[in-house]
Amino acid sequence: MMSIQAELQNAPPEKLVCNQVSKTFKTQRGSVLALDRVSLSVQEGEFVCLVGPSGCGKSTLLNIIAGLEQPDSGRVESSGQPVTDAGRDRMMMFQESALFPWLDVMGNVLFGLRLKPGLNNKERRDVAEFYIRLVGLEKFKRSNIHELSCGMTQRVALARALAPNPRVLLMDEPFAALDALTREQLYGDLQRIWQERRKTIVFVTHNVREAACLGDRVVLFSPHPGRVQEQFLVKLPRPRDINTVALAEYATEITRALKRHLKPETGEVAE
Amino acid sequence: MKRLLSAFIFFAVIVVTWEWLVRKGVWSPVLVPSPLDVLKYLAGAIRDGSMIDASFVTLKRLLLGYFTGLLLGLPLGLLNARFKFCQDTIGLLALGIQTLPSVCFAPLALLWFGLTETAMFSIVVMGSLWSVLLATDAGVRSVPPIYMRAARTMGSRGFHTWFAVILPAALPFIVSGMKQGWAFAWRSLMAAEIYITVLSGSGLGLLLHYGRELSALDQVFGIMLVIIAIGLLTDRLFFAPFERFLHRRWGLGNR
Ligand SMILES: Nc1ncnc2c1ncn2[C@@H]1O[C@H](COP(=O)(O)OP(=O)(O)OP(=O)(O)O)[C@@H](O)[C@H]1O
Ligand SMILES: [Mg+2]
């Protein structure tokens, strides 16, 4: 018999494991080491934020976890299975808008559901409507994509990513192009959805405050070559408000670490 | 409604001025028929059936050739975009032939097929095929890769990606290619009908040709009007729905 104490300390199973993942891009002007032996594990139901300066390989890592790109070396596992291709268990929200302009909001959210076996059309519509309601766009389900504002577009993208009910959500700077007010609203929505739907989320951002607000854990990346530098646990109660002092203190600490890892004159990483 | 009215007034003024100029003798009736004569000819030609028959023959040639061109051009364009080999072979051929006005095929078609419907058919196909092929190719190439990646994460593969993502994403290009193909087919068919007398059926172009031989100006003008009307009508019936869809969904163009 396991004691309650041991049971509580027993870490939940690891959902995502990146083991010594490296990736080099070859261009005409030479090769770029985008990721250098990056190891990262994410637990079931954890909210992890990846922070780092531009070009340090955050998107690349996310693409590899999504199965859209293959690492040159190293292994990625999802629920113990090696990742070889994209799959519905890991949905991605891209840095740029990837909604389909030839479909309306409903059509976009239905796209992934149509490909999901084991549902009839009525159920698919119901599921799509549920997620459209969840992101607060029920009035716009028949709207065309070009008629939506930027914030609404990102909500649709979120609904589309959630609709096939993935266990893991990979989000690449989803709110970067939004104004502060809309963003704050979406922080609230995302935390609520994450708790209600019990997702595992890997969230990429430039914004340290955003990372401290959303993440259970903040992982700091450094560029050229892309590496994991440092990790921070954010122990604040949820739902979090981005404007609190306690959160600002975390953000300051992370920002200081971020600066420490960058030599100002070259932008290179201090060893 | 207001736009309809302004269009109506515009054309009414033109016709009235035209009639007036002919009556006054400013324009010689040998060179310009009066609108009334043209109308009379049209009424007569419609009543005796010659106009209907000619329009039917022309439209049949056009539709048959155009849709064949479309049915060949679309898949060939897709193959072109997908396989380097096709691009280096058919693609190059298409690029070369597209610069050749398709009526230039008329002499060759005559030598190969004689004065037959097949000759006409091949000229119309040549007019539409290459435009559609090249536009489909260009459209598929211009689809942002992010759409394919997004579709892949949602479980789309192979044929599904082609039909549910790539083709619709390329639709604006494909529609404009279809329109261009239609315009080329229509022009080359008219040129061919004027140039070649095919005995199995006389189209509008042939009637136009006879009008010139007989110096029947009312016939020449009347048939030109019918040709314009058919051009306008097909544009409204075939392409306007597509364009409205593109406008509504993509927010492209203005109408
Ligand atoms: N397809 C590609 N071909 C060549 N180089 C690439 C490619 N994709 C990324 N890179 C390079 O890999 C490095 C990491 O790119 P990545 O997009 O992962 O950065 P990022 O951390 O997401 O940056 P940002 O925050 O600006 O989005 C960059 O130096 C970039 O130039
Ligand atoms: Mg990026």
Structure described in brief:
With 271 residues, chain A is of the alpha/beta class. Chain A folds into 2 domains: 4-89 and 167-266, Rossmann fold (3-Layer(aba) Sandwich); 99-165, no CATH class. Chain A has helices spanning 4-9, 58-66, 105-114, 121-134, 150-162, 180-197, 208-214, 245-260; strands at 14-27, 30-43, 47-51, 73-78, 81-82, 90-93, 168-172, 200-205, 217-222, 227-233.
Describe the 3D structure.
The complex is a heterodimer of chains A (271) and B (255). Chain A has 271 residues and is an alpha/beta fold. Chain A has 2 domains: 4-89 and 167-266, P-loop containing nucleotide triphosphate hydrolases (Rossmann fold, 3-Layer(aba) Sandwich); 99-165, no CATH class. Chain A is 34% helix and 25% strand. Chain A has 8 helices and 10 strands. Chain A has helices spanning 4-9, 58-66, 105-114, 121-134, 150-162, 180-197, 208-214, 245-260, and strands at 14-27, 30-43, 47-51, 73-78, 81-82, 90-93, 168-172, 200-205, 217-222, 227-233. In chain A, helix 3 (105-114) crosses helix 4 and helix 4 packs across helix 5 (150-162). The termini of chain A are far apart. The model of chain A is unreliable at 265-271 (pLDDT under 50). By secondary structure, chain B is mostly helical. Chain B has one domain (55-214, 225-249): Orthogonal Bundle (MetI-like fold), CATH 1.10.3720.10. Helix content of chain B is 81%, strand content 0%. Chain B has 11 helices and no strands. The longest helix of chain B is centred in the C-terminal third of the chain and has 34 residues, at 217-250. Chain B is globular, with a radius of gyration of 22 Å. Chains A and B meet through strand 6 of A and helix 7, helix 8 and helix 11 of B. The complex binds adenosine-5'-triphosphate (ATP) and magnesium ion (MG).
